[in-house]
Amino acid sequence: MAEASSVNVGSGCEEKGPEELSQESARPGTIISRVKLFDTMVDTFLQKLVAAGSFQRFTDYYKSFYQLQPEMTQRIHDKFVTQLQTSIQEEISEIKAEGNLEAVLIALDTIVEESKDRKEPAWRPSGIPEKDLRGAMAPYLLQQRGALQRRVQKQEAENRQLADAVLAGRRRLEELQLQAQARQQAWQGQHSTAMAAQLHVTTARHLYSVYFRMTSRVSAYLQHSFPVTKACPESGPVTWSQAQIPAIV
């Protein structure tokens, strides 16, 4: 009874064994999903593993403890079997998730299903490794060469666009330099003309100021040094000799 209960705990659910699957696959028109086949294979493995570790064999190894605590031994065996199944199922689930096994098996089923409608014979090796290698690698290499050529053409087109943009920028800079030089020359011409006119006006003003100051000083000196008296009608106008007028520096 203990062995039967342990087997039932290990199975968890009723699954078809390999014999039933082989009989079902032998039926005409029957298609078995590879995912289902894989799950059934795992469950069958767990069932056989639990059967191999039966309670009777467990008590043979722990006979003394079983004689002292038979119920405790039964509970320990049941818990051991349950944890063993759980750990194995978790490990298999992680392997399926890491390798994306379900998607791969479904894709394989799809390929097999689609290949049924093909009338041409499937590829078979010719027996010449060089020929088979060329036949297998040539399409891939041609595809890669086409992709590289398209990428090179795209890059060359981008390079031409960049070169045109650089040339346009250089022409724009040359035009701006010419405009700047023309404006600089025009400004220099206007500035030089204005400076010459300003210098002429300033010089004229300075000369006029010097002349005015000298004239004022001469007049003041003459009036101060040689006062002019009224001339008598009989004697005529008063005149000074050249020696009487001192030199004014």
UniProtKB/TrEMBL annotation:
<keyword id="KW-0158">Chromosome</keyword>
<keyword id="KW-0539">Nucleus</keyword>
<keyword id="KW-0137">Centromere</keyword>
<protein>
    <recommendedName>
        <fullName>Polyamine-modulated factor 1</fullName>
    </recommendedName>
</protein>
<feature type="region of interest" description="Disordered">
    <location>
        <begin position="1"/>
        <end position="26"/>
    </location>
</feature>
<dbReference type="GO" id="GO:0051301">
    <property type="term" value="P:cell division"/>
</dbReference>
<keyword id="KW-0131">Cell cycle</keyword>
<dbReference type="Pfam" id="PF03980">
    <property type="entry name" value="Nnf1"/>
</dbReference>
<keyword id="KW-0132">Cell division</keyword>
<dbReference type="GO" id="GO:0000444">
    <property type="term" value="C:MIS12/MIND type complex"/>
</dbReference>
<dbReference type="InterPro" id="IPR007128">
    <property type="entry name" value="PMF1/Nnf1"/>
</dbReference>
<keyword id="KW-0995">Kinetochore</keyword>
<dbReference type="GO" id="GO:0005634">
    <property type="term" value="C:nucleus"/>
</dbReference>
<keyword id="KW-0498">Mitosis</keyword>
<dbReference type="GO" id="GO:0007059">
    <property type="term" value="P:chromosome segregation"/>
</dbReference>
